C-alpha cells in the first residue's frame, strides 16, 4: 500500500486515454469490473474506486504505476492505492471526499501487467457525484414503514414481561430478568436437535413494551444464552466460520465466548442495512446498504414529486482489510418504476427494498428485493444482471405454481441445488404466507415448485420472515409480523418434508423476530449469564511455505476425535480441492497441496470439525495462502 500525491503528475500523459462507453460498458479486455460504474450518476462523495483485472497483477509493475483522480471542482486528489487480497483488484481510496455535483475523472497510465504478460493501456472513466446526501433515514424507520403497511390501525395487546414459570424450574438456569420476553411452545414432537437463535423486536407504531434481547434457547424455550441490548437487533445467527453476528446499527461479530471481536459496516458513505451479513469462505463480507437519492419523479410518472426521496439498495463486498472490492447499486441497473404495487407519487419511494443476499453455487449473488417481488442474479465478477425471477421483469415460467411469490424474504440456495424462499404473500388473494422450494432451470428459464408448506388455517406475516432447510430435511419457518388480532402469534414453526408440524414456538402478541435460526452450536454453561466452558479448540496452522510454488504443507491439530474437513477455495468461494473429509482421532496431521494446474493468486483454506458429517461444525477457521509462480 502506498500514498500517491497526484499533484505533480502531468495531465497531458492522458490526452490519448481511452474513454469507456456507458451504454455498452466495453472495458478494455484486460479489465473485468469497475466501480463506480463508468458514467454513473449520484455516487456518494465518500466513494472509493476499484478496478479489477481478469488476471492477477504483476506487483513489480504495479509499483511503477501512476493514477490520477480529479474532480472538476475539487481538483486533484491524494489517494491511498493498494491491491486487494484477491491479487487482481486495484483499490484507490481518496484522502478527502469529492464535492457534490462534480464529475470525477479517473486516469490510469499504460504499463500495468498481469502475471501472464497482458498489459493495461492508458484509459480513463468518469462518474458524477450526487447533488446531495439523503442517507439520514435510519434502518429502523425503513423496517417500520415496511411493517406498518398492513396493520397501522391494528390494536395490540400488552406483552408478558416474565419468562414462563415452568421453565424456571430448570435448576441449571438462574432466574431470568423480569422483562425477558415470554416464549411459549405449543407443539413439540421430536423436533430437530440444536438451539434456536433469535432476537425480539417491537416497533414504535405499536403500544408494546419489550426489552430487546439476543437469545439462544433450546426446544423447551430454556435459554442457553441471552444478552440484554440497548436497542433493537436483527439477524442473530451462526456464520459458517463459527462466529456469531447480529445487526444493531452496524453488524457485530462475536467469538465462541460471546466476546465482540470486530464490527462490520457499509463503506463509501452508505448506512448499513440490517437485513443481511454473509461471511464468505475467502474471508470477505457481503452486506447491503441504503442508497437514498433525490429524484424528479414528475419526469417518470404523472403527478410525481419533483424532489422525491427514492431509496435504492447498494451491495458491497468487503475484503479481509475492509476495503470495498465489489459494489453494486440498484440505480445503475434497475428502473425505479420496476417496483410493484408502488405509489410513485409519494414523497418517499422505497423502490427496491433488498432483504436477503445469497451466494449461488457458481459464486454469483442472489438478491431478494421485496418491492420488486423479484430475485435477481448478479454476476459477482462484472456486476451485470444475469437473470430476474418474479416481478415486472420476470424471465422465468413458473411450473406447478400459478400465483408465484410476493413481498418475499430469505432467498437461500440449498444442498440439492434448489432455492427456498419465505413467500410473505401480501398480494395473494386472500393474503397468506408460505415456505416454498423451487427448482430452477437457468437455461430453459423455468421455476418449478417442488415443495411448499402452507399452514392450516393460514398464517400471514406481512413483513420479515425466514425459511431454513435443516440437515435432516426438516424446514424451520419464521413467520414474521403476523396480525396481532389473530388468536395466535406463530413465531417459529418446524415441519417435516411431508408437512408434519413437529415444533412451534411463539413470542407474545405484538413482539416479533426478524429471523429465527436453528443451529447445533453446543456450549457447556454453568449458568445463563456466565461464560461458557469449552474443550480445547482445534488448531489450523498457517501453511508453509507461503507464498509457495507449487506445493505447500498445511498442519492441523485436533484435541479430540471428530469429523474433519479441510478444503481449498478460490477468491470467489469456489471449492478447488478437498484435502481431508473423514473421521480423525485426536492428534496432529500434515497435508500437502500440489497446486499444479491452478493459476497464481490468493486462495483460502478452511478447517471444519464436527461430531459427525451431519452435524454443524463446532470448530471452523479459514486462512489465506498465496500461489506465486
Keywords:
single chain; Immunoglobulin-like; Neuraminidase; five-stranded antiparallel β-sheet; 3 helices
What does it look like?
The strands form 10 sheets. The chain has a 5-stranded antiparallel β-sheet, with no helix packed on it. Strands 2-10-9-5-6 form a 5-stranded mixed β-sheet, with no helix packed on it. It has 3 domains: 2-128, Immunoglobulin-like (Sandwich); 139-519, 6 Propeller (Neuraminidase), CATH 2.120.10; 539-627, Immunoglobulin-like. It contains 3 helices and 44 strands. It is mainly beta and 629 residues long.
Helix/strand layout:
Elements: E1 2-4, E2 18-19, E3 31-35, E4 49-53, H1 59-62, E5 67-71, E6 75-76, E7 79-83, E8 89-94, E9 103-108, E10 123-128, H2 139-151, E11 184-188, E12 195-199, E13 213-217, E14 223-228, E15 234-238, E16 244-248, E17 250-254, E18 260-264, E19 271-279, E20 285-295, E21 308-318, E22 324-329, H3 330-333, E23 348-350, E24 354-359, E25 365-369, E26 374-378, E27 385-389, E28 397-399, E29 409-413, E30 419-423, E31 434-441, E32 446-453, E33 466-469, E34 475-478, E35 492-495, E36 501-506, E37 517-519, E38 539-540, E39 551-558, E40 562-569, E41 575-584, E42 587-594, E43 601-610, E44 619-627
Parallel strand pairs: 2-10, 21-23, 28-32
Antiparallel strand pairs: 1-7, 3-4, 4-8, 5-6, 5-9, 7-8, 9-10, 11-36, 12-13, 12-37, 13-14, 15-16, 16-17, 17-18, 19-20, 20-21, 21-22, 24-25, 25-26, 26-27, 29-30, 30-31, 31-32, 33-34, 34-35, 35-36, 38-39, 39-42, 40-41, 40-43, 43-44
Amino acid at each position: 500500500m502506498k500514498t500517491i500525491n497526484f499533484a505533480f503528475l502531468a495531465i497531458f500523459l492522458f490526452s490519448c486515454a481511452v474513454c469507456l462507453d456507458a451504454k455498452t460498458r466495453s472495458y478494455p479486455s484486460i479489465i473485468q469490473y469497475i466501480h463506480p460504474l463508468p458514467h454513473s450518476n449520484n455516487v456518494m462523495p465518500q466513494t472509493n474506486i476499484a478496478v479489477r483485472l481478469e488476471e492477477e497483477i504483476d506487483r513489480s509493475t504495479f509499483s511503477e504505476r501512476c493514477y490520477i483522480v480529479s474532480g472538476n471542482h475539487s481538483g486533484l486528489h491524494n489517494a491511498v492505492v493498494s491491491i486487494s487480497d484477491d491479487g487482481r483488484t486495484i483499490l484507490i481510496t481518496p484522502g478527502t471526499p469529492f464535492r457534490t455535483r462534480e464529475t470525477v475523472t479517473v486516469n490510469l497510465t499504460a504499463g500495468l501487467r498481469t502475471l501472464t504478460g497482458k498489459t493495461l493501456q492508458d484509459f480513463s472513466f468518469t462518474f458524477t457525484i450526487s447533488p446531495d446526501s439523503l442517507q439520514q433515514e435510519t434502518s429502523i424507520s425503513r423496517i417500520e414503514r415496511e411493517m406498518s403497511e398492513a396493520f397501522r390501525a391494528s390494536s395490540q395487546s400488552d406483552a408478558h414481561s416474565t419468562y414462563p414459570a415452568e421453565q424456571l424450574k430448570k435448576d441449571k438456569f438462574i432466574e431470568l430478568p423480569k422483562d425477558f420476553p415470554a416464549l411459549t411452545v405449543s407443539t413439540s414432537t421430536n423436533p430437530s436437535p440444536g438451539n434456536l437463535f433469535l432476537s425480539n423486536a417491537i416497533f414504535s407504531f405499536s403500544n408494546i413494551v419489550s426489552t430487546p434481547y439476543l437469545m439462544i434457547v433450546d426446544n423447551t424455550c430454556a435459554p442457553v444464552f441471552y444478552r440484554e441490548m440497548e436497542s433493537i437487533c436483527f439477524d442473530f445467527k451462526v456464520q459458517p466460520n463459527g462466529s456469531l453476528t447480529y445487526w444493531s446499527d452496524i453488524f457485530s461479530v462475536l467469538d465462541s465466548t460471546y466476546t465482540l471481536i470486530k464490527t462490520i459496516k457499509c463503506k463509501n458513505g452508505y448506512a448499513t442495512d440490517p437485513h443481511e451479513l454473509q461471511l464468505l469462505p475467502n474471508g470477505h463480507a457481503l452486506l447491503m446498504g441504503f442508497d437514498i437519492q433525490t429524484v424528479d419523479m414528475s419526469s417518470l410518472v404523472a403527478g410525481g414529486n419533483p424532489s422525491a426521496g427514492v431509496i435504492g439498495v447498494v451491495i458491497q463486498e468487503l475484503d479481509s482489510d475492509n476495503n470495498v472490492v465489489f459494489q453494486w447499486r440498484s440505480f445503475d441497473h434497475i428502473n425505479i418504476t420496476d417496483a410493484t404495487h408502488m405509489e410513485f407519487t409519494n414523497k418517499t419511494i422505497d423502490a427496491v427494498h433488498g432483504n436477503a443476499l445469497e451466494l449461488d453455487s457458481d459464486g454469483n449473488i442472489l438478491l431478494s428485493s421485496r418491492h420488486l417481488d423479484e430475485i435477481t442474479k448478479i454476476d459477482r465478477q462484472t456486476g451485470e444482471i444475469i437473470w430476474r425471477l418474479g416481478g415486472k421483469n420476470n424471465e422465468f415460467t413458473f411450473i406447478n405454481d400459478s400465483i408465484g411469490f410476493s413481498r418475499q424474504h430469505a432467498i437461500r440456495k440449498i444442498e440439492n441445488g434448489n432455492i427456498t424462499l419465505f413467500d410473505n404473500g401480501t398480494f395473494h388473494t386472500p393474503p397468506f404466507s408460505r415456505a416454498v422450494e423451487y427448482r430452477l432451470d437457468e437455461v430453459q428459464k423455468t421455476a418449478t415448485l417442488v415443495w411448499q408448506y402452507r399452514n392450516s388455517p393460514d398464517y400471514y406475516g406481512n413483513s420479515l420472515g425466514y425459511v431454513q432447510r435443516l440437515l435432516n430435511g426438516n424446514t424451520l419457518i419464521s413467520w414474521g409480523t403476523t396480525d396481532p388480532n389473530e388468536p395466535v402469534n406463530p413465531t417459529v414453526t418446524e415441519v417435516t418434508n411431508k408437512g408434519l408440524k413437529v415444533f412451534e414456538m411463539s413470542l407474545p402478541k405484538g413482539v416479533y423476530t426478524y429471523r429465527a435460526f436453528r443451529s447445533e452450536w453446543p456450549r457447556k454453561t454453568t449458568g445463563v449469564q456466565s461464560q461458557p466452558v469449552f474443550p480445547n479448540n482445534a488448531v489450523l496452522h498457517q501453511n508453509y511455505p507461503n507464498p509457495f510454488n507449487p506445493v505447500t504443507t498445511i498442519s492441523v491439530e485436533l484435541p479430540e476425535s471428530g469429523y474433519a474437513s479441510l478444503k481449498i477455495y478460490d477468491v470467489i468461494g469456489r471449492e478447488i480441492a478437498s484435502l481431508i473429509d473423514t473421521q480423525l482421532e485426536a492428534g496432529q496431521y500434515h497435508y500437502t497441496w500440489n497446486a499444479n494446474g491452478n493459476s497464481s493468486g490468493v486462495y483460502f483454506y478452511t478447517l471444519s470439525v464436527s461430531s459427525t458429517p451431519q452435524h454443524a461444525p463446532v470448530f471452523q477457521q479459514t486462512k489465506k495462502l498465496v500461489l506465486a509462480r
